[in-house]
Amino acid sequence: MDFEPPFLKIYNTLLEKNLGDNSENDLYSKVEGSEELPLIDLEKLNLEDPKREECMKEISEAASKWGFFQIINHGISNEILNKMISEQKKLFYQPFVNKLSAETVFNLSPKTYRWGNPCATNLRQLSWSEAFHFALTDIPNMDQHITLRSSLEDFATRMDTLAENLVEILALKVNMKSNHFQENYLPKSSFIRLNRYPPCPISSEVFGLLAHCDTSFLTILYQDSVGGLQLMKDGKWVDVKPNPSALVVNIGDLFQALSNDVYKSIKHRVVAAEEVERFSTAFFYCPFNDAVIQSENKPAVYKKFTLREYRQQTLNDVKETGDKVGLSRFVL
Ligand SMILES: C=C1C[C@]23C[C@@]1(O)CC[C@H]2[C@@]12CC[C@H](O)[C@@](C)(C(=O)O1)[C@H]2[C@@H]3C(=O)O
Ligand SMILES: O=C(O)CCC(=O)C(=O)O
Ligand SMILES: [Fe+2]
């Protein structure tokens, strides 16, 4: 199919070198934890205290204990989510050569389309997936993509409001001012990442997406019903089972730093499926690039840094090592 990225061809050298090598072959051996990821009903936020307060507590406890939780009654309609996925499919089903030249062929911003991990140095770092990134600020200019633009706009508007509500609740619980995010981090550099995980003939050898933490304050993810997302909990990989009415929320590196490690940015990855393709859509809630990330708490765990510095460090690390090093680069 001419829309599939040529993973096998490009990964050939690394695969030939490593297939049959057991140290690289036990990729999925540690999977399975029995604990259930918190599922939080946001409907309770519309009720009177103590129900509302209880819900806020559930959110902050999940963010500190798990760094991950699922939400239901989140207010984003199935219509908006389905419309997004159907536009996403249309985009991924374009010929691979056109996706590669998305800047010229589709008149999209540079680096909108990404596939695999061009910097991988070993099997553990290969990723059997492709993605499109859309900065929220670029979406209004997508004149040549009317239906995609409208889906992205609807999705972004709802996700942005939801993310704002969640970060404000989380901020309150670590004694930050209730409008901390509004006052300090506007305009934002939030973006949407459309993910596609093609069927993978060597699914026991490579990941759909290698283990990473997100560079964001908070990420909200919509996943289809295929499954494959796993998160690290107490040293074990735990499946995030698909729930069609839920969205997955996770704390990103920036909120971990801002909360001085109260909230946790947790490693997660996606296991590749052999027979079926999988789609997910992620909203990364981020401040403007020169926003300073610094906790008020003492003693501070991290040096103060700007998002720009953090992104640059990540880029360099990925280029040099194939992997994102992350927050440990900024420990005091
Ligand atoms: C190779 C990589 C690119 C990535 C960092 C990683 O090591 C693994 C996942 C990628 C990801 C996914 C979420 C965000 O889009 C991102 C910016 C991040 O923080 O982790 C990207 C990284 C990237 O594109 O540089
Ligand atoms: O597809 C998923 O379930 C997770 C995607 C993800 O982690 C990301 O886009 O950062
Ligand atoms: Fe992620």
The chain-level mean pLDDT equals 93
> How many helical stretches?
10
Question: What's the CATH H-level homologous superfamily?
Answer: B-lactam Antibiotic, Isopenicillin N Synthase, Chain
Sheet with the most strands?
A: 8 strands, mixed
Q: In angstroms, what is the radius of gyration?
A: 20 Å
Amount of beta strand? 15-25%
The separation of the N and C termini measures 50 Å
What is the N-to-C succession of helices and strands?
A: HHEHEHHHEEHHEEEEEEHEEEEH
Number of strands: 14
Organism: Medicago truncatula (Barrel medic)
Pfam family, one: DIOX_N
Domain Fe2OG dioxygenase: 188-287
Protein name: Gibberellin 2-beta-dioxygenase
Care to describe what's here?
With 332 residues, the protein is α+β, with helices and mostly antiparallel strands. It has one domain: B-lactam Antibiotic, Isopenicillin N Synthase, Chain (Jelly Rolls), CATH 2.60.120. 33% of the residues lie in helices and 20% in strands. It has an 8-stranded mixed β-sheet with strand order 1-2-10-7-12-5-4-3. Helix 3 crosses helix 7 (146-173). The longest helix is centred in the middle third of the chain and has 28 residues, at 146-173. The radius of gyration is 20 Å and the shape is globular. The chain starts with 6 loop residues before the first helix and ends in an 11-residue tail after the last helix. Bound molecules: the ligand C=C1C[C@]23C[C@@]1(O)CC[C@H]2[C@@]12CC[C@H](O)[C@@](C)(C(=O)O1)[C@H]2[C@@H]3C(=O)O, 2-oxoglutaric acid (AKG) and fe (ii) ion (FE2). 2-oxoglutaric acid binds at residues 193, 195, 209, 214, 221, 223, 229, 268, 270, 280, 282. Keywords: Iron, Metal-binding, Oxidoreductase.
